[in-house]
Specification:
The protein has 2 domains: 49 residues; 172 residues, Nucleotidyltransferase, domain 5 (2-Layer Sandwich), CATH 3.30.420. The longest helix is centred in the N-terminal third of the chain and has 47 residues. Helix 8 packs parallel to helix 10. The chain has a 5-stranded mixed sheet, sandwiched between helices. It has 10 helices and 5 strands. InterPro entries: Oligoribonuclease, Ribonucl_H, RNaseH-like_sf, RNaseH_sf. Keywords: Exonuclease, Hydrolase, Nuclease.
């Protein structure tokens, strides 16, 4: 065997061993990366399934069959009530006739808050807001897994079911009604109830949601003994 031929054979021998080691390293690294991504995805999906959908509406009244929605707001929190979403907020246009049919309480408070004037200027209706809200929910939560929350939120759910069915069906059928928890606390832990944060009650949807989250967080820490550092 010539010296040159021997050098070539040795060279290719080392190259083949290097490639074998490198490919082995590559596949091991790829396996770890793929499974790490899968575990991260699983964790992310679990976290998303535990999220809570906070929705508040202002309406022209409380009769679902005849009253209409004036304003909708939504925030998403994780299970520990940390806000994880952007703000969703829309004012809906209602006709002068609809606004004139409001009872005295609604006339007074919705005029004072500026909602009546905002509704007159709005170009949005139930269908367009339903579509926007659906897209917002789709961005932050999996379909059919997360409950809707708020104070006396069953009423908002009734209006949502009638006027915004696409968004309504995207959420889980269960609700988290902070008002119900409040009533239980008032009876069983009156000292905690009396110490709960007071509400401004300005009757605008986004402000009401933030107050509802704050109220439930107070009960979470003072009744359910959740870790305040969560």
């Amino acid at each position: 065997m010539s010296i040159a031929r021997g050098v070539v054979i040795v060279f290719f021998h080392h190259i083949s061993r290097w490639l074998e080691i490198d490919l082995r390293t590559f596949y091991v690294g790829k396996y770890i990366a793929d499974h790490s991504d899968a575990n991260t995805q699983d964790m992310s999906n679990n976290q998303r399934r535990n999220r809570i959908v906070w929705i508040d509406m202002e309406m022209t009244g409380l009769v679902v069959e005849s009253d209409r929605i004036l304003e909708v707001a939504c925030l998403i929190t994780d299970e520990n009530l940390n806000i994880v979403s952007d703000e969703f907020h829309q004012v809906l246009h209602q006709s002068d006739d609809e606004l004139a049919r409001m009872n005295a309480w609604c006339q007074e408070h919705h005029t004072k808050s500026g909602l009546v004037e905002a509704s007159k200027k709005s170009q949005e209706d139930e269908r367009s807001v339903d579509k926007s809200l659906y897209n917002f929910l789709n961005k932050y939560i999996p379909k059919g897994r997360c409950p809707m929350a708020g104070n006396s939120v069953y009423m908002d759910r009734l209006f949502l079911r009638k006027y915004m069915p696409t968004s309504n069906e995207y959420m889980h059928y269960r609700i988290i009604d902070v008002s119900s928890i409040k009533e239980v606390v008032r009876r069983w832990k009156p000292e905690v109830h009396d110490a709960a944060p007071k509400k401004e009650r300005n009757h605008r949807s986004l402000d009401d949601i933030r107050e509802s989250i704050s109220e439930l967080d107070f009960y979470r820490k003072n009744v359910f003994n959740a870790n305040s550092n969560d």
